Amino acid sequence: MAAPVGSKANPSKYDCYPDLADDEPYFVIRADDPLASALVELHAYIGAGQAGAAHNKLAEIMELTRGKAPRPSDSPKYRETFAISSAMEHWRAAKR
Fold this sequence. Notes:
This protein is an all-alpha fold. The longest helix has 20 residues, at 76-95. It has helices at 36-47, 51-65, 76-95. The chain starts with 35 loop residues before the first helix and ends with a helix.
């Protein structure tokens, strides 16, 4: 059986790893994250300009997280996620 598309063994034809600059920040969402597929769909809907579908997917994500305790704001993983986001913003600004 072939490995699923988007996996290490069967990268997507749009896989970005070979094209990443050495200093380019990136963020990986793995399939074992319960929100992974919904977050990827949300990204696709936003990129395609499908606001209604994006809104619905975001509502689905919010419902999935409703019963879970939030990650504490002092969590190292939480802080690193925001640090990566900030690094992405700065990296793009420096490329302009």
